[in-house]
Amino acid sequence: MSIAYLDPGNIESDLQSGAKAGFKLLWVLLGATIIGLLLQRLAARLGVVTGMHLAEVCNRQYRTVPRIILWLMVELAIIGSDMQEVIGCAIAFSLLSSGRIPLWGGVLITIIDTFFFLFLDKYGLRKLEAFFGLLITIMAITFGYEYVRVSPDQGELLKGMFVPYCEGCGPAQLTQAVGIIGAVIMPHNIYLHSALVKSREVDRSNKKDVKEANKYFFIEASMALFVSFLINVFVVAVFAEAFYGQTNEEVVKKCVFSSVLLLSVLQGVVLGCFFGPAALYIWAVGILAAGQSSTMTGTYSGQFVMEGFLNLRWSRFARVLLTRSLAITPTLLVAIFQDIQHLTGMNDFLNVLQSMQLPFALIPILTFTSLPSLMDEFANGLVYKIGGGVVVLLVCAINMYFVVVYVAALQSVWLYVLAAFLSIAYLTFVGYLVGNISPSRGAAQDLDDK
After folding, report:
1. Which of 64, 133, 142, 263 is 20 to 30 A away from residue 249, measured at CA?
2. In which domain of life is the source organism classified (predicted)?
3. Residue 170: left if φ>0, alpha if ψ -120 to 50, beta else—which one?
4. Which domains does the chain have, with CATH numbers?
């Protein structure tokens, strides 16, 4: 679960946030992480109390057509996340090889990690978790080194983290704020966490044991997200201190005069120009660890989602082969025919796409954990219901605002019509999820059947 908050999409969002807005959006990162923690708590509670993960509950509660649409939306989020992992690994391989490995070569190399993790998975979940822990440690050390090396202004950092403001922010900074939310609160991670808790043995007939399991899962999630939050703050702070307020021309000029390879500028990672080549390669190692470790996040969540929604039990090999192929194909085409700037733009778009998919995870988890027939005494209270509803409305409002901004900038009549149609369909489906659970397939009966 912690890995999903540290994938290349998060890292890219962090560095863009620091470079474009300085420390001003750290409060957005903090708020998104806290909301993410509360949602992970609900996901874990659903799995512990019912013995089913979120996709399985959706299969039992929604009718066929909306269930398939919901599955497709979650799959889209998973593929988008997988593309970000591919992009991050490709950039890291290119940096570590000083450009000898082209971007398209790095994309192809990421196919190998698929087989590596499938091999590692055979040795059990605990060994896989231990390896993930090693990669998180590598990220903490590498990005922590960058943080210490740059020495950002601690006063400005704390102000940006705890004072909700964004003085002088324009559309670029607002778009970046949405990207942070989409990068941090990832839809498929909610589905994933509700299934991962089933790997622990819990006596669900004993309410005391269930309550204790919920408590310790929350403590575990809090620790995991605290570590991931610190690493994300390291990245934002480094780029805020180094690059905020500088133009591209100023950065390029400094890199040229510093006799450091211009390659780092072309790839959008110019730490080496400012703080020496070691910073560049240490950064690349951290990005590679992020990309490699997050590979199995999409694999596991895709496996659970497909099994839950469709009752299809593919092998992990077939599942990874499908999603990785769908992710690599468009990324490879961009890497071959375009440049790093287009890959970065694609990553920004994917973060906003994750934000668009959020209601398709938020609404089901809030709905089902609020049902007394399903959760018994562990159902959500009034505070969670009201707070969850506000978050869903806020996310939908932000998404619609940026659809309007994006379409208005392109000034195309056909795009206006298409955007209007898709927006109506999007909001209609969100409204359906909010208020329509199949009455013929009650939660209590589902538990009896199970």
Report:
1. 142
2. Eukaryota
3. beta
4. 3-353 (1.20.1740.10)
The secondary structure element, H or E, covering residue 391 is helix 382-410
Q: What single letter denotes the amino acid at residue 305?
A: V
**What type of residue sits at position 256?**
V
Q: Count of CB atoms within 10 A of residue 129's CB?
A: 13
Mean pLDDT of 274-287: 70
- The whole-angstrom separation of Cα 173 and Cα 16 is 9
- Interval 58-82: pLDDT, tens: 988 888 888 899 988 888 888 877 7
Task: For residue 411, give the DSSP letter.
Answer: T
Q: Which two tokens stand for residue 374?
A: 């399903």
The helix/strand/coil state of 14 is helix
Q: What confidence tens digit (pLDDT) does each residue in 28-56 have?
A: 999 989 988 888 899 999 999 988 889 99
Angle between helices 8-21 and 207-243 in degrees, nearest 10? 40
Find, among 111, 96, 80, 85, the residue nearest to 291 by Cα.
Answer: 85
- Unique residue bearing structure tokens 């399903």: 374
* Spatial CA neighbour of 13 closest among 173, 155, 138, 122: 173
For helices 154-162 and 26-50, the axis angle rounded to 10 degrees is 50
Q: Rounded CA gap, 418 and 377, in Å?
A: 45
For residue 312, which amino acid is it?
L
Among the listed residues 28, 22, 81, the one whose alpha carbon sits nearest the alpha carbon of residue 349: 81
**Residue 270, φ and ψ in degrees, nearest 5:** -110, 20
